[in-house]
Specification:
Blueprint: H1 2-23, H2 27-47, H3 51-76, H4 80-85, H5 87-109, H6 131-139, H7 144-165, H8 177-181, H9 185-188
Amino acid sequence: MIETVIFYVFAIATVVSACAVVTVKNPVHAVLFLVLTFFTSAIIWMTLEAEFLAISLVLVYVGAVMVLFIFVVMMLDINIARMREGFVRYLPLGLAVAFIMLLLMLNVVTSDVFVFDTGVEPVPKAAEYSNTKALGGVLYTDYVFAFEIAAVILLVAIIAAISLTMRKRPQTKYQSPSAQIKVRKSDRLRVVKMPSSEEQ
């Protein structure tokens, strides 16, 4: 009973925070709501006895990826007014993609794979059982192709983030370490001999 209550509380929190990610106006607030989404998802995974996935989600995404996202969002200098201008133009495409994703999720959830009430209690695992080993065995055998596709998508995202932050800004001053090393003393210092007041 208590597990069901915990699931529904954090599931509602996950859905609300995920909706806030795409509806809030401030990009930094959107990233923080995404962090909350990851935390609540990790708690749901803990209730499913998937401790490795929960800890990985908190350490990798919240601890590393979200920090990178915050730095990228702050460095991009996003023009909020210009971004809102294109919102209405891309709204039909966004709604179409959201509708397709909703149909796919309903197809998965309503399939025979998800049986919510079978009347059979789950078999408890032994103390030496490792869900990390079981997850690795399934991930690198049955789902190895999907795993490789996810790795390629992450690689493309990394390259896109780097290319966005490496753009040139005309109002920003840059240093050239190679030019600084080549500087000689005569380029910076010039000794001028002037007559003293007594000589004048």
